[in-house]
Amino acid sequence: MIEAYFKNIVPLFHRTQRFLDQRSWAWPWLLALVVVVAVMGSMFVGAYPMPLRRPLDILLDIILPFSWVDSPAWDLREITVVTLIRPPRIMVAVFAGITLGMSGTALQGMYRNPLVGPDLIGVSSGAAFGGALAYKLALPTLGIVTLASIGGVGAMLCTLFLARIVGGKSDGLPLILAGFFVGAFFMACVGLILHIGGGYAGPNLVYWLLGTFRGADPTKAWTIILTTTAGGILLMALRWRLNLLSLGDLDAKSLGLDVGTLRWILILVVSIMVAVQVAVSGVVGWVGLIIPHCARMLVGPDHRRLMPVSALLGCLLVLGLDNLTRTVIWSEIPVGVLSGFLGTPFICFLFWKCRSRGWS
Amino acid sequence: MKTGDFSFSGLGHSYLPDKWIFRNYQSQVSRGQILALLGPNGCGKTTLLKILLGALAQTEGSVSVNGHVAFVPQLFQVAFDYSALDMVLMGRAKKVGLFSQPTSADEEMALKALERVGLASLANRPFHEMSGGQRQLVIFARALVAEADILILDEPTSALDLKNQNAILEWIDRLARRENLTVIFSTHHPHHAYAVADQALLMLGGSDYAAGQVDEVLIESNLFRLYNLPLKKVSFEFEEQAIETLVPVFRPKEDHRMA
């Protein structure tokens, strides 16, 4: 058995890897295929026990114009799970992953800094504060999204302002430090809301803050689908410009780039995308930081290939983590906690791997 | 004013009120000419280049540029490990729409530019892994695909060995004489300016400067004022060619070398 594995399967892996190394354009298509399979597969897994084939039967019976099964054996609960609970949850996870992967890539390119991520420069914390405030005020989903967006954009602006007055430039170490300070401040504000909030909203708020897709509904799903699609199209269109922006302001300007305008567009797009992601699913940390690194390992640093691959890898990671929490792990650990457990050793591994040759 | 012509007059810049880095500078360069900027560290060479590039607003005076300007910065580290071809392709930025991606024709042009600087075989080599001289040539190739009329270079030979310094000077000369580009470069080496430039601008501090033809400006008295170090003009014959160059006279107080 082991001999057959080494004889047949391992060479196949090597041939596939060589093929993909020589054709980095093939990665996005391959990953897109994997995402489609993963999304479809996610419909069949979940905490609610039912036969493996049941979701397919229910969906086909609803979609097809004729009766797929002569005498349906499912009950109302199973129909609810398959039509109202799993699809929005999967969609929120998919688009949250796309948002985090793309925004991390855009931020790292824009600030020429591979240690930047949406949760490291204060956006996520600001959005968490806005969202927590909306929870406290018992606002509907739209209110949560609006306040989270304002919080996210506001926090990003605070970080940029602080980095500029401290370090003179809005990239490098001053940006990381400013993001840390701003993030700490907004998390303190969240703590204050939790402290004075109490009551029944408290545990729900804490669970949401830790990052979870439980409670995803069609409103949340459509909110993140529309925002991520609009923002994602813009980021895809501007992805080559990120190559130029990553050269530094002076060089980018000399190449004819309107650095200020482009940076503002990107900041606004990324902040709104991340804020909406936080509003619908809480703070899912580390994904935006580690996914661009994984994508660079596959297709190199050119943002034309990096951006779509980051989107797809982010999607796969978040969807995978969510599937893990709702099937394998007892009591549904929040996805944000799992991503933290995964992200910390990964970034330590990167530190070790890149100790001598940089981050590229 | 023809395409590729470049001039500035009454140019001055200060970061603090009444603390002028330079003031009342005036110069004019025609298409196909080379202007060298010389001055000690901190005299404002890079500031002047940024103003000429349009990346920094001058405090007073005016700059007239007719044509597309490309910039070659000092040896720099890129944050991500782009290939040489990726780097050159970025020169097409002005020709590619804001929301568009470079086409295969753009990539073809970038590859041809790399061919022209003799680096086509290294097109896919990561920029980080190239030598200092090769990186400068890649940036030259980037300027070529940008179809620039004017090229501004910030100390292009700094941190390069003599062989690569010579290669870069040859390229500066070639870009001006064969490609008909206007070239402005800053340097700490008066002999480099003497070897390739048509005009020189010596930044002597404040409103004190000397500008004009190299023969008139790069003279021993001006250079002594500039560096507080004697520089001698020497002439000799090398491979049946009359050579004239500038040599700095470094004189330690005591010579401790073994006889």
Helical fraction of chain B equals 25-40%
Task: Tell me the series of helices and strands of chain B, N- to C-terminal.
Answer: EEEHEEHHHEHEHEEHHEE
Q: What general outline of chain B do the C-alpha atoms trace?
A: globular
Chain pair sharing the greatest interface: A-B, 31 and 30 residues
Number of strands of chain A: 0
The largest β sheet of chain B comes out as:
6 strands, mixed
The CATH H-level superfamily of the domain at 110-283 in chain A is ABC transporter involved in vitamin B12 uptake, BtuC
Output the keywords.
heterodimer, A: 360 residues, mainly alpha, ABC transporter involved in vitamin B12 uptake, BtuC, 15 helices, B: 259 residues, alpha/beta, Rossmann fold, six-stranded mixed beta sheet, three-stranded antiparallel beta sheet, 8 helices, 11 strands, globular
Structure notes:
The complex is a heterodimer of chains A (360) and B (259). Chain A has 360 residues and is mostly helical. Among the domains of chain A are: 110-283, ABC transporter involved in vitamin B12 uptake, BtuC (Orthogonal Bundle); 287-352, no CATH class. Chain A is 75% helix and 0% strand. The longest helix of chain A has 35 residues, at 76-110. The two termini of chain A are 39 Å apart. The mean pLDDT of chain A is 85. The model of chain B has no long low-confidence stretch (mean pLDDT 90). Chain B is of the alpha/beta class and 259 residues long. Chain B has eight helices and eleven strands. In chain B, α3 packs across α4 (132-145) and α4 (132-145) packs parallel to α5 (162-177). Chain B has a six-stranded mixed beta sheet, with helices on both faces. A three-stranded antiparallel beta sheet of chain B has the order 2-1-4, with helices on one face. Chain B has helices spanning 45-53, 84-89, 104-116, 132-145, 162-177, 190-196, 214-217, 220-227, and strands at residues 6-16, 19-29, 34-38, 60-65, 69-72, 150-154, 182-187, 199-205, 208-213, 231-238, 241-248. Chain B has one domain (6-226): Rossmann fold, CATH 3.40.50.300. Chain A binds chain B through residues 109, 112-114, 237-241, 243-244, 246-251, 253-257, 296, 300-302, 304, 357-360, and chain B through 50, 53-55, 69-71, 73, 76, 78-83, 86, 90-91, 93-94, 96, 98-102, 126, 128, 146, 152.
